[in-house]
């Protein structure tokens, strides 16, 4: 043993080599291997002498030894390997493994490298694998993997390929399954090593160990011999870990292999220097570094290229079923899959590697796509998935072709798919669906790109078709189980897609952190591209080429592109049905220019899937535009120096000739013309070309149409074309060659294929000319044909790849703007809705239904957040319908799951549901209904119905489902209705009441209620409790929806319920602490709801609602409110509206009680709510129910008495509302106490107002800031155009009282008058001048307006109908007492505030004279008294003009009634008053009328009676006017000017002359006297009137003449005085009948009898005597001169008096006095 331990000497290599050489010597056949043995021995000897040198030789292949020694030492190993003898080879292999594993071999191994010994060893190892020994095979694999793995060795170029090929061969022809699996694993591991190094461009990289299990995913499962997989995994892991401990000897040595060291230093092109640290201290980076760094990549490139080529090997014709070839192809694809799965960014960033994928891998996929071998298809799909998920940014065009070819082709085959193929595709799609970025990118780059297929749309539609299964009635190769599997898988994929869309959206919104509704800003900032690392550690494909950064496309351009594409496709499909319509549409939508050349170019390029037959049809049309297009189309070809046959072939590539001869004729004619133009020397004329073209077309059809049996021969063809060249023949050789061309090679279109045109209905296939490819793929061909049969197609596609790569469309777009999802949803929502709904409807598989509900949830999430209302509502409605709550008897577990989905949607996406909340809340309402029924609780209807006593007795109270099973409850109509079911949209469950319910249905229903127990109250309530977390938009939408549901519940005719109503109250509680802004928006909705339900005809419901509102309000009033806000008022508004509109007294009473309770318990928080409170009480005050009025007033009393400061605390305008409310109470007709108290409270309010409780009163009153007064009766406020703040509060108070003065109740009138004037008097000093004017005109004057106007009106009426009786008592007609008080107050007020009110004098005077105009004595005397008091108090302060105003008003009062009065008297003229003696029984009828005399007289007498009474009052009023003027004159004579005195004179004069006029109406007087005696009335005091009028006039004038000589002289009053005296004398004389005397002739005395006067005359004379005496005394009192002056005028009257008869001696006395003392002296002179 000891010898073997020291074998090989002190060096490390020796310690490895020694035992192996020893073993070789022992195992070798001495004779056969003598050279080998001697070599081994000499090597062993040499090793004894060698030790590791400190300085290693850079060129040496072994560590620590010189290069010559190394070669010598390795030689025996090489010989042993070359011996082809297993026993010798094995130790050599073992030794080699150790040398590689321990890192003892160094250097670069290549066919042309300096270390040829190493190359030879590797070559020999590769060779020795073929000697047919299992153990040797495994050892070879081990050596090769160690060599590739070794960090000190770089195997390059051909050597590397040789290594790979060796493993390949072991895999293909290995001695057992385990070895084959090992070979495959080693190959895979080698690929990982090579490409990981190429990725990093460095040897020193961390390596992943391959997973054997994954390698057997698609193939070779049959090779597994029990524990093979485990064995192979260990096999690989062992070798991989063996080299891991190799010390990095390169650093400890100055420089073993320079190039390698440079390779190690990881300074790859432009990459960061990651681990250069210590290595920088070395000799620096040599210029060869770039050489070696690219060597590593070069090797990778080489391996990749060769693998692709291997994968494209096809079997030969002789051996079509070459299984080994197939396995080789398969393993190449598997290795390519490993490379792609582990590939990193180098494949994207390095142009060469990217091109390698495009050139080799894509070609391989393309060529293998036609194979029907399942494993190859799976591998292709898998490689394609890698390309798509990782490298799509560089492979846009390629993916655009492969996706339809590999994936969509299989996906869209619904009827006869291969089960495994389709499952592979579905699994692949599921994987893709899991990567949200891929889904988005596919849509952006293909569906939004005009030149690409709509991949996303087709995926979704294909999945939908699969999910719906084969259409009914179609024949399919699928078994039922397979169909179901497909359906479930495709639903799973759809769910994955919508889930990914949601995830991407959430991620983008988080990154952008943008609030969605503003506008989807595209966030192109760096952080939106913080490239997240995928699970496998590779960077996903979103860090794109630099040239793509500008293409971080915003949604707007994408939207345009998408819209453009959709419109274009619409035009194309229209063209494929009706070409001319299609072209017209495309021109109108600006997709094609309107010039024929542009249309022709569009048809010629045909990139968009136009049907070639239709192009031909269109070109052959004879319409003008089509013709021009056809000409442009043909003219666009250049046939220069083209053979005629080639030209026709070239021409017909793009369209199929139409069937109609005329159309062909037109096209060919133009073709011939164009050909001749391009080749002028070809034919003598275009005719020749035209005929020949036609012949060629006929020949083509003849030769290649299977329907033509007798084919045309060459001679036939030549014969047919005789003489066409202008009568001459074309050369036979020319025609013969043409014939051969056509017969051998059919003239056909580019895309002409073996598939009939009709099958290509889907124009999308045409995109990118995919028809050919898809047809290529759909042929069921064996493996050897593809290249031969379809080389053309493959070349065509390669051309397309090249063409594409140059186009701008190949730019790859990335999007971070969530708006793109809108377009995606528009594409996919319909298919998804259909797929989920149908599956949910038809399947009872819990897994499938759960998937669908998941899909619905994600779909709702995306559509809701993106604000796509229609789509969101569609999804939510579908889920809601699937709850089956509307027909509970048919419920299943899946329906309960739908209910759970609805609840989770509500909680997760509540913020975006908007109108869709309604469906969700309806479901919750129905659940609660069913749960209640299940518990057997009485329905709400039993409490809300009108008579609930009977139902209460019948409803069983026992809880639990047991109650339903009792016989009694089966009759419960609510249960019956639910079991019978209804439609989803019916408001309540079970509206249709017809049809019986079977016991089975009942039992089903009971079982289903058990199912519903899965949804507890917690889940239900959670939705409502969660409402606190909704954002401000969402909560409003939520409340709206809940209100709708609540209304439909409450309005149910059969079964009203309050579930949603109670929930409304709850959520209002939950959300009460939201900011005011949001709360007021919520409340707008809630208040409308409370109002509409509060006005409900179902009283119980209305009461319930108002009570709920009360609870809320109480809660709400706990919140503080700052000044000038309006929330409390908004909150209480529903009470007001219901109070005003409700027809139910109970509701109104309830509201009054609620408001009273709230106000009194939360008085300090009512704030702005006072407005509403007062509005409610105002409505209550006007109520027709006494108890409501009293109830409201009671509270009102308390508020005003105890809480007055609170009313105006927040907002002073509420004072106005309070006043208005009190005024309404004053109008209450039930109880005058209430009214009087209300008036008293108004007085109280005024006091408070005056105290300055509302606003500061120290501001200047004249600062009249204009304020609009909040008063309903604008008419009252008209004159308050400019009033100050303070004033605005007085206005309603004063106008209210003012109106009350015309109340029909005396006490109220009186009280309001007193209060009004007291207020004005007590607080008037606070009013500004302008305000006073306003008050006067708006408050004070209207009180009297009523009085005066009404009176005037009555007078006018009476003039028209004198027969009417005394005026009817009217509410607004005051009694004398009130009038007196009013006038009194008015004058008091005016006097008190004379300084301010002085301008109002005319108004006051007109009011008082208004009293005088009255035809009634009472008011007139009031007016007189007031007038007298007014002048009495103010006499000295009145100006001349004011006096003038007063007197003129009095004059007007005196004279204004005269014309009317006289007119009234005239009515007496036609009336005959019968004598007393005349019989009343006279029945003689009036000739015209059928009236008896009696009737007539009755009427007449009544009229007379009326005239008499009017006369009396008229006289009284006139006398009062005279009286007051005399009094005024006496009192204030010193203040009166001449002008004013003149007016007084005029008044006296007019009254006196009026009185005289009255008295001169003797006939009238007689009539009246007669009538009075009949009616037993006293006569009107006409004489008295006349006496008084003249007496006062006389006294006045006498006084003036005596005491005011200056005025009397100026006005010549003395003569007036004399004239009046004369008048008096004359009147007296007239009365004595003395006028007869005047008629005598002066010359001839006639004697006549002087008869004594009758008694009536005597009385009249007696009455007139005092006046006469006064007049005579006045005359006698005149001064001598004056008397003498006027004597002549009145002397004859004195004489007459002497002759007359007098009733008293006084007259004679005065007369004699005049004669003696006045006339005597004149005569005596």
Largest sheet: 2 strands, parallel
In terms of quaternary structure, the protein is single chain
What value does the Rg take, in angstroms? 62 Å
Number of helices: 77
The parts where pLDDT drops under 50 for at least 5 residues are 1-5, 247-293, 514-551, 752-789, 946-970, 987-994, 1255-1279, 1350-1372, 1477-1492, 1635-1642
- Assign the structural class, choosing from mainly alpha, mainly beta, alpha/beta, alpha+beta, or little secondary structure: mainly alpha
- Give helix % range: 55-70%
Tell the overall outline.
elongated
Strand element count: 2
- Work out the strand percent: under 5%
Q: How far apart lie the N and C ends?
A: 206 Å
For the biggest β-sheet, the strand order reads: 1-2
Overall mean pLDDT stands at: 74
Organism: Theobroma cacao (Cacao)
Subunit structure: Homodimer.
GO cellular component, one term: membrane
Subcellular location: Cytoplasm, Cytosol; Membrane
In short:
Residues 522-533 have a biased composition (Polar residues). The chain has 1725 residues and is mainly α.
How does this model look, in words?
Keywords: Cytoplasm, Guanine-nucleotide releasing factor, Membrane, Protein transport, Transport. InterPro entries: ARM-like, ARM-type_fold, DCB_dom, Mon2/Sec7/BIG1-like_HDS, Mon2/Sec7/BIG1-like_HUS, Sec7/BIG1-like_C, Sec7_C_sf, Sec7_dom. Residues 251-292, 515-553 are annotated as: Disordered. The structure is a single chain. With 1725 residues, the protein is mostly helical. 67% of the residues lie in helices and 0% in strands. The protein contains 77 helices and two strands. It has a two-stranded parallel ribbon. α13 packs across α14, α18 (374-391) runs parallel beside α20 and α19 packs parallel to α22 (455-468). The chain is elongated. The N and C termini lie far apart (206 Å). The N terminus is likely disordered.
């Amino acid at each position: 043993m000891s010898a073997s331990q020291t074998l090989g000497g002190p060096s490390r290599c020796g310690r490895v080599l020694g035992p192996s050489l020893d073993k070789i010597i022992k195992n070798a056949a001495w004779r056969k291997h003598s050279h080998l043995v001697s070599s081994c021995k000499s090597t062993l000897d040499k090793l004894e002498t060698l030790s590791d040198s400190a300085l290693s030789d850079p060129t040496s292949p072994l560590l620590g030894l010189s290069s010559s020694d190394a070669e010598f030492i390795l030689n025996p190993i090489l010989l042993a390997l070359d011996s082809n003898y297993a026993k010798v080879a094995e130790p050599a292999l073992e030794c080699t493994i150790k040398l590689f594993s321990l890192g003892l071999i160094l250097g670069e191994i290549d066919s042309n490298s300096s270390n040829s010994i190493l190359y030879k060893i590797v070559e020999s190892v590769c060779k020795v694998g073929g000697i047919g020994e299992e153990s040797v095979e495994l050892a070879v694999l081990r050596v090769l993997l160690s060599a590739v793995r070794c960090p000190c060795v770089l195997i390059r170029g051909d050597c590397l390929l040789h290594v790979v090929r060796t493993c390949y061969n072991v895999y293909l022809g290995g001695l057992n399954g385990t070895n084959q699996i090992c070979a495959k694993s080693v190959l895979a591991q080698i690929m990982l090593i090579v490409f990981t190094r190429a990725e990093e461009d460095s040897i020193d990289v961390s390596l992943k160990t391959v997973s054997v299990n994954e390698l057997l995913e698609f193939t070779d499962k049959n090779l597994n011999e029990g524990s093979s997989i485990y064995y192979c995994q260990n096999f690989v892991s062992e070798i991989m870990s063996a080299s891991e401990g190799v010390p990095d000897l390169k650093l400890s040595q100055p420089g073993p292999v320079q190039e390698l060291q440079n390779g190690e230093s990881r300074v790859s092109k432009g990459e960061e220097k990651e681990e250069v640290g210590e290595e920088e201290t070395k000799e620096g980076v040599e210029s060869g570094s770039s050489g070696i760094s690219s060597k590593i990549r070069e090797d990778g490139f080489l391996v990749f290229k060769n693998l692709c080529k291997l994968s494209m090997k096809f079997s030969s014709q002789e051996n079509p079923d070459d299984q080994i070839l197939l396995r080789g192809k398969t393993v190449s694809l598997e290795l390519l899959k490993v490379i792609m799965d582990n590939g990193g960014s180098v494949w994207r960033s390095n142009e060469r590697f990217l091109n390698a994928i495009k050139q080799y891998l894509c070609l391989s996929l393309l060529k293998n796509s036609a194979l029907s071998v399942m494993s190859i298809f799976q591998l292709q799909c898998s490689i394609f998935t890698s390309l798509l998920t990782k490298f799509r940014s560089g492979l846009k065009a390629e993916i655009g072709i492969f996706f339809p070819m590999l994936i969509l082709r299989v996906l869209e085959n619904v009827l006869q798919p291969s089960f495994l193929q389709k499952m592979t595709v579905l699994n692949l799609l599921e994987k893709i669906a899991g990567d949200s970025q891929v889904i988005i990118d596919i849509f952006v780059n293909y569906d939004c790109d005009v030149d690409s297929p709509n991949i996303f749309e087709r995926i979704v539609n294909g999945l939908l078709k699969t999910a719906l299964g084969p259409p009914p009635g179609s024949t399919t190769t699928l078994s039922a189980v397979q169909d179901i599997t497909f359906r479930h898988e495709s639903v799973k994929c759809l769910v994955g897609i919508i889930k990914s869309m949601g995830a991407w959206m959430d991620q983008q919104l988080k990154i952008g952190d943008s609030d969605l509704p503003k506008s989807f800003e595209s966030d192109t900032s760096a952080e939106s591209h913080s490239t997240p690392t995928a699970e496998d550690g590779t960077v996903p494909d979103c860090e794109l080429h630099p040239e793509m950064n500008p293409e971080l496309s915003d949604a707007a351009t994408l939207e345009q592109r998408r819209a453009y594409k959709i419109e274009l496709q619409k035009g194309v499909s229209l063209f494929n049905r009706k070409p001319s319509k299609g072209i017209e549409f495309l021109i109108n939508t600006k997709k094609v220019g309107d010039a024929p050349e542009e249309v022709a170019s569009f048809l010629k390029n045909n990139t968009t899937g136009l049907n070639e037959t239709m192009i031909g049809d269109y070109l052959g049309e004879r319409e003008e535009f089509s013709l021009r297009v056809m000409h442009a189309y043909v003219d666009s070809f250049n046939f220069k120096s083209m053979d005629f046959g080639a030209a026709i072939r070239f021409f017909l590539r793009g369209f199929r000739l139409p069937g109609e001869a005329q159309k062909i004729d037109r096209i060919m004619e133009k073709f011939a013309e164009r050909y001749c133009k391009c080749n002028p020397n070809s034919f003598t004329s275009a005719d020749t070309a035209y005929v020949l073209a036609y012949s060629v077309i006929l020949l083509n059809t003849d030769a290649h149409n299977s329907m033509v049996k007798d084919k045309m021969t060459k001679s036939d063809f030549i014969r047919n074309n005789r003489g066409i060249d202008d009568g001459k023949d074309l050369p036979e050789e020319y025609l013969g060659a043409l014939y051969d061309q056509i017969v051998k090679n059919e003239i056909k279109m580019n895309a002409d294929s073996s598939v009939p045109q009709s099958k290509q209905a889907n124009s999308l296939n045409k995109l990118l000319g995919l028809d050919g490819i898809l047809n290529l793929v759909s042929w069921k061909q064996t493996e050897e044909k593809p290249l031969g049969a379809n080389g053309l197609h493959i070349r065509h596609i390669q051309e397309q790849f090249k063409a594409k790569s140059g186009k701008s469309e190949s730019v790859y777009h990335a999007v971070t703007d969530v708006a793109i999802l809108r377009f995606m949803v528009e594409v996919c929502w319909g298919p998804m809705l259909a797929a989920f709904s149908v599956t949910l409807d038809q399947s009872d598989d819990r897994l499938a239904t759960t998937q669908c509900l998941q899909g619905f949830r994600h779909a709702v999430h995306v559509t809701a957040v993106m604000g796509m209302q229609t789509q969101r509502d569609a999804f939510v409605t579908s889920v809601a319908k699937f709850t089956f709550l509307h027909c509970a008897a048919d419920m299943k577990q899946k329906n309960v799951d739908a209910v759970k989905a609805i609840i989770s949607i509500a909680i997760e996406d509540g913020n975006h549901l908007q109108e869709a909340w309604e469906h969700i809340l309806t479901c919750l309402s129905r659940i609660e209904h069913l749960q209640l029924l299940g518990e057997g609780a009485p329905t709400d209807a039993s409490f809300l119905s009108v008579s609930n006593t009977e139902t209460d007795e019948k409803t069983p109270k026992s809880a639990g489902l047991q109650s339903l099973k009792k016989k009694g409850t089966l009759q419960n109509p609510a249960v019956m209705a639910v079991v019978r079911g209804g439609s989803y949209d019916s408001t309540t469950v079970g509206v249709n009441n017809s049809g019986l319910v079977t016991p089975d249905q009942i039992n089903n229903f009971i079982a289903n209620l058990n199912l519903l127990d899965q949804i507890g109250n917690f889940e239900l309530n959670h939705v409502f409790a969660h409402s606190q977390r909704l954002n401000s938009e969402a909560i409003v939408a939520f409340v709206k929806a809940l209100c709708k549901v609540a209304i439909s519940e409450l309005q149910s005719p059969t079964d009203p319920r309050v579930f949603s109503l109670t929930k409304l109250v709850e959520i209002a509680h939950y959300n009460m602490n939201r900011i005011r802004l949001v709360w007021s928006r919520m409340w707008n909705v809630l208040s409308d709801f409370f109002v509409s339900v509060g006005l409900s005809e179902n009283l119980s419901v209305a009461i319930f609602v108002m009570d709920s509102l009360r609870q809320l309000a109480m809660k709400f009033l706990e919140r503080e409110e700052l000044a000038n806000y309006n929330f409390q008022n908004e909150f209480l508004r529903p009470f007001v509206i219901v109070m005003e509109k409700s027809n139910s007294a109970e509701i109104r009473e309830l509201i009054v009680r609620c408001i009273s309770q709230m106000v009194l318990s939360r008085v300090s928080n009512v704030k702005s709510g006072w407005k509403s409170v007062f509005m409610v009480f105002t409505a209550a005050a006007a109520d027709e129910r006494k108890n409501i009025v009293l109830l409201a007033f009671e509270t009102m009393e308390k508020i005003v008495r105890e809480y007055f400061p609170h009313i105006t605390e927040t907002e002073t305008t509420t004072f106005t509302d309070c006043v208005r409310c009190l005024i309404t109470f004053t109008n209450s007709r039930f109880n005058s106490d209430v009214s009087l108290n209300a008036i008293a409270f108004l007085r109280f309010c005024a006091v408070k107002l005056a105290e300055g409780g509302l606003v500061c009163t120290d501001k200047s009153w004249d600062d009249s800031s204009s304020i609009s007064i909040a008063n309903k009766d604008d008419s009252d406020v008209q004159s308050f155009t400019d009033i100050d703040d303070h004033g605005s509060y007085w206005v309603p108070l004063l106008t209210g009282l003012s109106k009350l003065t015309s109340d029909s109740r005396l006490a109220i009138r009186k009280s309001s008058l007193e209060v009004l004037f007291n207020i004005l008097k007590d607080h008037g000093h606070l009013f500004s001048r302008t305000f006073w004017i306003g008050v006067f005109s708006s408050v004070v004057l209207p009180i009297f307006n009523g009085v005066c106007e009404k009176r005037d009106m009555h007078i006018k009426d009476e003039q028209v109908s004198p027969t009417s009786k005394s005026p009817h008592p009217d509410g607004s007609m005051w009694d004398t007492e009130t009038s007196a008080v009013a006038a009194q107050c008015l004058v008091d007020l005016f006097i008190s505030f004379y300084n301010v009110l002085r301008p109002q004098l005319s108004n006051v005077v007109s009011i008082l004279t208004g009293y005088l105009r009255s035809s009634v004595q009472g008011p007139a005397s009031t007016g007189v008294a007031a007038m007298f008091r007014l002048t009495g108090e103010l006499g000295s302060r009145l100006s001349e003009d004011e006096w003038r105003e007063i007197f003129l008003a009095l004059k007007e009062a005196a004279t204004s009634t005269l014309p009317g009065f006289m007119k009234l008297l005239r009515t007496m003229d036609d009336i005959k008053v019968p004598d007393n003696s005349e019989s009343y029984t006279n029945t003689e009828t009036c000739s015209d009328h059928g009236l008896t005399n009696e009737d007539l007289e009755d009427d007449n007498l009544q009229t007379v009676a009326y005239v008499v009474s009017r006369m009396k009052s008229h006289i009284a009023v006139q006398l009062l006017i005279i009286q007051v003027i005399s009094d005024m004159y006496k009192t204030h004579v010193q203040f009166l000017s001449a002008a004013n005195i003149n007016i007084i004179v005029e008044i006296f004069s007019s009254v006196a002359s009026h009185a005289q006029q009255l008295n001169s109406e003797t006939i009238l007087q007689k009539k009246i006297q007669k009538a009075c005696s009949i009616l037993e009335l006293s006569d009107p005091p006409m004489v008295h009137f006349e006496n008084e009028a003249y007496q006062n006039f006389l006294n006045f004038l006498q006084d003036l003449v005596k005491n005011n000589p200056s005025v009397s002289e100026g006005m010549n009053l003395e003569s007036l005085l004399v004239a009046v005296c004369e008048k008096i004398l004359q009147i007296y004389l007239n009365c004595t009948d003395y006028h007869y005397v005047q008629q005598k002739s002066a010359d001839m005395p006639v004697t006549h009898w002087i008869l004594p006067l009758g008694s009536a005359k005597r009385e009249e004379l007696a009455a007139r005597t005092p006046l006469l005496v006064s007049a005579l005394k006045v005359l006698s009192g005149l001064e001598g001169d004056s008397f003498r002056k006027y004597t002549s005028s009145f002397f004859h009257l004195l004489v007459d008096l002497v002759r007359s008869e007098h009733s008293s001696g006084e007259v004679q006395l005065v007369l004699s006095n005049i004669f003696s003392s006045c006339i005597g002296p004149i005569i005596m002179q």
